[in-house]
Amino acid sequence: MPQPEAPNGTITPSAFQPLGDAPPTPPPRRNWRYWLLPTVLLLFVVIMGFLFSARSVEINVDSTNPANVEVGGLHLVLGGRYLLRPGEYSLEISAKGYYPLLTTLGVTREDSQRYTFDPQPLPGRVTIVSQPAGAVIRVAGKPLGQTPSPILELAPGDYSLELEHPHYLPVTRTISVTGRDQAQTFENRLAPAWANVTVASQPAGAEILVNGEPRGVTPATLEILQGERELALRKMGFTEAEQTLNVRAGQAIDLAIIKLVPAAGLLTLSSTPSGANVTLDGDFQGQTPLTLSLKPDQPQRLMLSRSGYRRHTETVRLSAGASDQRAIALVAELGTVDLQVTPAGAEVRVNGKLVGTGNQTLSLPAHEHRVQVSLAGYNTVNQRLTPRPSLEQRVSIDLQTEKEARLARLQPEITTALGQTLRLFIPGESGPAEFTMGSSRREPGRRANEVLRPVSLRRMFYLQTTEVTNAQFRQFLASHNSGQAQASSLNREHQPVAQVSWQQAARFCNWLSEREGLAPFYQQEQGIVTGFNPGAIGYRLPTEAEWSWAARTRGDQLLTFPWGETFPPTVVTGNYADTSSAYITGRTINGYNDDQAVSATVASFPPNHYGLYDLGGNVAEWVHDVYRIPGANSAAETDPTGPKTGDNYVIRGSSWAMGRRSELRLPYRDYGQAGRDDVGFRLARYAE
Predict the structure, then answer these.
(1) 194-259 architecture in CATH?
(2) Is the peptide bond before 214 cis (omega within 30 degrees of 0)?
(3) Domain spanning 265-329: which superfamily?
(4) Which residues of 340-350 are buried (b: 16+ CB within 10 A; e: fewer)?
(5) DSSP H/E element including 383
(6) Is 8 left (phi over 0), alpha (psi -120 to 50) or beta?
(7) Torsion angle, CA of 144/145/146/152, rounded to 10 degrees?
């Protein structure tokens, strides 16, 4: 190191300090230049490291206006591409006319990457106008007010636009909305929905109505909406003229001059009494009260007529469009009716009005009247009669008690749909109302089940005069076969049906009832009779009491045999086991021959005193009652029908196969349930 020079050129020695005591040397001072190179080197390394690890990313924005793209985090933009290291970055895209887009950008390790973003455009600002204004707007079917519309915000796209105006044709079109906050105005010119219609009349000055609404007076040119319209012209004193118009928009219509017809005069006509027939110039118009249309200013012949009243005629005349009222009192033509009433205390009403009691001499108009005669406890009589002028009539009315009237309504005989005849029996009139069933213990041939018991019959009933035949039963069951006995047929058409069970006989009764529309007497479940309805008047089997009454009672006498009281019979009275059937039955009535080996054609032998055939022979008969043996000293029964249920049913009467004294007796009782070749049945039913 150079030494400082001493003043005046003298060299002076420097201060000496031993090494061990020397002060520390201060570090050298480093300025920015010292750090520049390391910093540049470090920056270079970082940049090169970023460039080697970054990926090239292209960001495309699908928008019509330039977009501003902001990427969060470390990145470089080179030539429109972004250099980004793999990872996630916030991304913000904005463009005029679009909603801002905030999203996340995920950069992968691929060297080159491309991302496209579609920001959502802002709605368009749409205004819809029409000429004329006031049209109802619907966009995509949604009502949006009337034209001119306020500014409507609509998303970009195509929309169906509908415009409706009460006096113009509707418009339907498609509008394309640009969106992106752009203003668009859609203008529409509406076409008129009417046509000009020229209307004139003779005479002029008629009021014009279109679909009932006044539109002016003739002559006039009107704007009438398209479609089918009802045009009417009205003028005092003239008939209203009507016409249907088919109006098409824009197509003018010039109607020819419409000639109005003078209006008819209106005559309101009434009469006392009402209901008179009315003619005008000989043409029937109806009955009073009514309103007549008269030819204007022309005389016409008016005539009123009603049965029992004098004819009224006059001439009427009214001016065009005039109206009048006329009330005409008809003059009655009277006839005399001498009404004879029994009993004398019965009330008499004519046309609903009480005129007195008992016999009456009535002076009535010569037309039909309603006469009612009534008295408590008697059946009311309603009758129509028409008096005749100058001719006295005599009418007799005899009231019946309710019972007499009821009996009068009943037919003494009825015929079924199969041709069977049933005769009406009224206990107490046809025969005794009370009698005794069964037989005394001392009676020869009596059986233990013939217990004496008192019975009273009150209900009227019908009994078939003959037994049901094979032909009649086969209409119910076509396959039925009554069979044969020792080669003798039981199956001919008019022989009594045999080989039928009690159930089959009862079901036949129900079938016939339903065929004739009667309520069935027997109750059935799955084809089996399980009970009966005593209130029904459908066909049934006779009750045992009815059968016994019809077979045994003759006045106060109870018959033992069909022919009387002695055994054996001395004359042929019925079909029993006779000598001709000995080879079949093996038992016969000694010396008796009826020439019928088996069952005979029904009604082949004389009827009994009630007009009933074969009650004591031919075939025995099913009756309605379930079989039972009554107790001794039983109380009197009224219209008995027997137990409701049971396993066996009563069989009454003898048959062609029976010849013993016990079997031929009318009190004889048997029972069973299955069919036999000598058992059939006859029909019965209650009268009410």
Answers:
(1) Sandwich (2.60)
(2) no
(3) Immunoglobulins (2.60.40.10)
(4) ebbeeebbbbb
(5) strand 381-385
(6) left
(7) -50
Question: Quick check: 354 and 333 in contact, CB under 8 A?
Answer: no
The enclosing H or E element of 57 equals strand 55-61
Answer CATH for 334-405 from 2.10.109.10, 1.20.1580.10, 2.60.40.1120, 2.60.40.420: 2.60.40.1120
Determine which of 346-350, 399-403, 488-492, 499-503 has the lowest per-residue pLDDT on average.
Answer: 399-403
At 368, phi and psi to the nearest 5? -65, 135
Contact indicator for 137, 146 with CB cutoff of 8 Å: yes
How does DSSP classify residue 630?
Answer: P
pLDDT at position 52, please? 72
Where is 544: in which H helix or E strand?
helix 544-552
Residue type, 518: L
pLDDT tens for each residue of 300-340 = 999 999 888 889 999 999 888 888 999 999 988 888 999 99
Smallest CA-to-CA distance from 199 within 264, 142, 252, 130 is with 252
> 81-121 pLDDT, tens per residue?
888 889 889 989 998 989 999 999 888 988 888 999 989 99
Cis peptide before 387 (omega within 30 of 0): no
Predicted confidence (pLDDT) per residue in 593-604, tens digit:
999 999 999 999
Every domain of the chain with CATH number 2.60.40.10 lies at 265-329
Instruction: Give the DSSP H or E segment for 465.
Output: none
Task: For residue 239, give the nearest of 206, 286, 210 by alpha carbon.
Answer: 206
Q: Which residues contact 226 (CB under 8 A, 6 or more apart)?
A: 193, 194, 195, 247, 248, 249
Q: In this structure, what are the phi and psi dihedrals at residue 441, rounded to the nearest 5 degrees? A: -65, -20
Task: Please state the pTM of the whole predicted model.
Answer: 0.50
CB–CB of 528/506 below 8 Å? Answer: no
Distance CA 550, CA 194 (A): 95
Q: DSSP readout, 101-162?
A: EEEEEEE-S-SEEEEEE-PPBPPEEEEEEEESS-PEEEETTEEEEESSPPPEEE-SEEEEEE
What confidence score (pLDDT) does residue 667 get? 97
Q: Which helix (H) or strand (E) holds 507?
A: helix 502-515
Distance CA 550, CA 682 (A): 12
Tell me which fold the domain 124-189 belongs to.
Answer: Immunoglobulin-like (2.60.40)
Could you give the CA distance from residue 482 to residue 297 in angstroms, rounded to a whole number? 91
More confident residue, 482 or 264: 482
- In the chain, list all ranges with CATH 3.90.1580.10: 413-686
Asked: is 413-686 a CATH 3.90.1580.10 domain? The reply is yes
Of the candidates 166, 614, 650, 290, the one whose C-alpha atom is nearest the C-alpha of residue 447 is 650
Residue percentage of the chain with pLDDT more than 90: 62
418: buried, middle or exposed (CB in 10 Å: 19+, 13-18, 0-12)? middle
Q: What are phi and psi of 531, to 5 degrees?
A: 180, -170
User: Is residue 50 within 8 Å of 85, Cβ to Cβ?
Assistant: yes
Six-digit token string for 38: 């390391």
- Please list the residue range(s) of the chain that carry CATH number 2.60.40.1120: 124-189, 194-259, 334-405
Closest by Cα among 229, 238, 197 to 216 = 197
C-alpha–C-alpha distance, residues 411 and 527, integer Å: 32
* Residue 235 CB coordination number (10 Å): 20
